[in-house]
Amino acid sequence: MTRLKNDTLIRALLRQPTEYTPVWLMRQAGRYLPEYNQTRSRAGSFLGLCKNPGYATEVTLQPLARFELDAAILFSDILTIPDAMGLGLYFAEGEGPKFERPLREEWEIRDLAAPDPGVELRYVIDAVGEIRRALAGSVPLIGFAGSPYTLACYMVEGGASDDFRTIKTMLYARPDLLHHILEVNARAVTLCLNAQIEAGAQAVMIFDTWGGSLSHAAYREFSLAYLQRIIAGLKREHAGARVPAIVFTKGCGNWLEDIAAIGCDGVGLDWSVDIGEARARIGNRVALQGNLDPAVLFSPVEVVERETEKILASFGYGGGHVFNLGHGISQFTPPENVKILVDCVHRASPRYHGNNANTRAS
Ligand code: CP3
Questions:
Q1: Is 3 part of any domain?
Q2: What contacts 123, CB < 8 A, 6 or more positions away?
Q3: Distance, CA of 260 to CA of 59 (rounded, Å)
Q4: 267-301 pLDDT, tens per residue?
């Protein structure tokens, strides 16, 4: 077992004391970095990056070479799982992800099977191993997958959607069919995350980007119930270390208590909730991750620093906070502002931790 030189992220997720607040950013490897765009053009496409462990390793490490981030996140995509199920993922320029064979017919849904991560997702598992070797114990590697409902949105709609007409029609008219898709997805995600953990992922995160588009009751039935099933099936310890699990539902404000009760270690927050209020509601049960509005990063330095400090202050004294954005970083973000943000978290957060925190908090 390699000991981590910097395990601040893991300790924060387990709500253990840390010296400062760890920080990483959703989509930290991506198009806002010129070196990413260069590697992507060498690889030929985004999927060319994902499917080649050497390229995936190279782009995973790019943001860590520039910024003092406290974690790396596997470079991949949530849609590799439905691709491995045979739906044919492709990216049309400027249109986002699409499937050649979205789920339309009942027999297609009945035929759906969870892929074997060691076979159909071998490139993801190999990338995890190669990234771990390249990181050489410097910071933890986060593995990830999409939530069953978010994956189903793309699988049924065939791509991005503004009204989710097809999947919501299925949800209300044929809930049995949607439940079948979600069951297969939950199995596939559990297998894939466990394979990532066995290959070396030291924390895992589930992205539920579209759970927040559901009605109150439907969120519990069609998204949360399956997130809970995944959490229950995850390996929580590997190579003598606890592997924390983070759940992120965009638009989760209504359901914080419900999410905190499914057994995850951390809850990701989008920017619509006040992190101090979220802490008062669920901070005694889970760590919180978030939640700066990614649009703040378009602002001048003083604004980036002020908004970053506001979130640290709102969370307040003590551990259990992982600084992040409330959603993925925009491709139009100036990289200099990411440095300002990361350095600001490291400079301004120690006063909320350690002995300072104990005396100040009492
Ligand atoms: O965070 C990271 O750095 C790890 C890599 C990562 C990517 N996608 C790379 C990516 C992660 C964790 C994801 C998750 C993902 N993918 C989600 C959930 C999180 C979220 O953002 O809501 C979703 C919904 C997807 C599906 C997906 N993949 C979409 C909607 C898009 C298009 C987005 C866009 O901005 O055009 C992608 C493509 C994608 N995934 C890119 C990256 C870096 C951009 C692709 C490119 O280089 O052209």
A1: no
A2: 50, 51, 52, 53, 56
A3: 32
A4: 999 999 999 999 999 999 999 999 999 999 999 99
For the CA of 250, the closest atom of ligand 1 is 22
Asked whether 272 and 325 are in contact (CB, 8 A), the reply is no
Q: State the residue for tokens 């104990």.
A: 358
What's the number of domains the chain is made of? 1
Residue tagged active-site, from 77, 208, 265, 270: 77
3 is catalytic: no
pLDDT tens-digit profile of 33-60? Answer: 999 999 999 999 999 999 999 999 999 9
CATH value at residue 244: 3.20.20.210
Please tell me if the CB atom of residue 344 comes closer than 6 angstroms to any atom of ligand 1. Answer: no
Tokens coding 165: 């007409």
Catalytic residue among 11, 15, 20, 40: 40
Q: Which of 27, 32, 58 to mutate to test the pocket of ligand 1 (most atoms within 8 A of CB)?
A: 27
